[in-house]
Amino acid sequence: MSNDRERDTGAADIFKIPHDTSNEQLIVAAAITSPKARQELASRIRPEHFQDHDHSLAWSSILRCLDQSHEPSVPALVKLSGGKLEKAYLDDIVRANPTAPGDMRFHIEALQWDTTRAKAVNGPISEMLRALQDPGTSPERVRALARQIPITLQGSSTRTHLRDGAALVAEHRGILRQRMNGIGLFPFGIEGLDTYPPNSLDDDGTDVSGQPLLVPGCEPGKITTMTAISGGGKSTITALIALKQARICATRGSGKILFGSWEMPPNDTLELMACISAGIQRKRVKTGQITEAEFQLICDRMDMIKEWVKFVDMPFHKERGVRHTHDEVLDVIHGYIADSGATLAIFDLWRRAFRRMKDESDEQEALYRQQAIAEETNCHCILVQQQRLKDIEVRSNPIPTREGIKGSSAWVDVSDTILGVYLPGLTKRVSRNVIQILVLKQRFGRWPLTIEFNWNGDIVEMSNPQLIWDAAIGDESKAQSSYSGKSPKKNLGSLVKSAASVQKDKKAKAA
Fold it and tell me: What pLDDT is recorded for position 382?
């Protein structure tokens, strides 16, 4: 037994490969102090390249700063790390390396070679040594491991998708801490949709008022699908979200919104956002019935909006006879997101960019690539897609559904959140002063849900949100709501009770 322990200890000692800590410090300092070096470093280095835990965490924070268009200052890195990084240590390495070296390539290659050596030792070499120690290991297994060693030593530094466990845990600890500090919440900006409306009780009778409703919400790197029938309000609600997000960007002084307004022209969308911001009726603006003061107010709001919202025209289908491949279209979309530095990208309608899609498998492939683009750019993407009108016409209840989204089932698979927009007065002889937002899917939260609002469509005003648990299911018998003249609270029966009623029931059971 003692010989076995000695062999294990010896192998563990062999596996410990030294790395150049000073080189890691130099690279971190260069990214903090030099914008020119930072650009090259960010394109070639990942957190997994660093052997030192703090340096890996610092690099994750630097990349997050760049994704959010922030300067990676020492205080910003400490904050993004959830306080795990020490300001004094970062200050020390910056003072020790005040300027970036002239040849960053040498230092990048040295870091990558350290990574390659460590991967080889912790991967095929260590496994082969353990296999050699075990007499029961087959010769084929040992030979197979031996063949992997040269593969690992050749170019493994460019294969950075194999995550280091310790670095992954450290990174997510920071994310959890941010959520606890309220930093990791990503609202759309619509009251009653980001958090549960007042007097909302779940089906257990627990008061959830004010708690997050949409999870992950507008989180960077995720995808939201907005769907409705043509003319059903999806573009209007999307423009409202864009305006709310622009205000969030203006408040924090960073971030951009890329708006591919491909159903309504960009100037119409900009005008709509300005009207919403100014509280001026769209009908009067469209017919020119505004005063000189209102004209100036709308122009002022458009000037403010353009600082945070970048519009992109439909870049395809303008040359006769030219039909772009899916990859060409997605390369252009990826490029515009990168060029704008967007934290939110909206494409209304995304599907209009593609003309060569022959079947659902083509659309599925394009959607998965769009998902990868959102993750790579750390940009939240809102893709607007219509409901199949023929399905709506034959259904007794015309509310939007997941199954009714036009096209591939990949829309449901790819989307982290699916929101349906429903105007009951559009298809029924009921009040037009009601709008519903249906939560048809969310990755980490409860669905289906329906949030019903009082609605003034001419100034795009939503108020008095009320939770209706089961209207989003599509069962017309359950989709009763306030526009029918009945109270939503009564229509939900045992699912939703008043807080007083719940307390009374609990006391009765206790007795």
Answer: 95
Q: 185, 213 in Cβ contact below 8 A? A: no
Long-range Cβ contact pairs of 456-461 (< 8 A, separation 24 or more): 457/233, 457/236, 457/423, 457/432, 458/281, 458/282, 458/283, 459/275, 459/276, 459/279, 459/280, 459/281, 459/282, 460/236, 460/239, 460/240, 460/272, 460/275, 460/276, 460/282, 461/279
Report helix, strand or coil for 58.
helix
CA distance 128 to 146: 7
d(CA 453, CA 91): 51
Does the bond joining 495 to the residue before it have cis omega, within 30 degrees of 0? no
The DSSP secondary-structure symbol of 215 reads S
Residue 144: count other Cβ atoms within 10 Å of its Cβ. Answer: 14
**Which residues fall within 8 angstroms of residue 93, CB to CB, at 6 or more apart?**
25, 26, 28, 29
- The domain made up of 223-472+486-500 has a fold known as Rossmann fold (3.40.50)
Segment 225-272, tens digit of pLDDT: 999 988 888 999 999 999 999 998 888 777 789 999 888 888 999 999
pLDDT tens digit sequence for 284-295: 998 889 899 999
What per-residue confidence (pLDDT) applies to 151? 62
Q: Determine the Cα–Cα distance for residues 68 and 477; give it in Å rounded to an integer.
A: 46
Q: What is the largest CA-CA distance in the chain?
A: 94
What residues does each domain of the chain span? 2-179, 223-472+486-500
CATH topology of domain 2-179: DNAb Helicase; Chain A (1.10.860)
Highest mean pLDDT among 4-18, 206-220, 413-427: 413-427
Q: Which long-range contacts (CB under 8 A, 24 or more apart) does 448-451 make?
A: 448/472, 448/473, 449/213, 450/479, 450/481, 451/192, 451/193, 451/197, 451/213
CA-to-CA distance for 348 and 242, rounded, in angstroms?
12
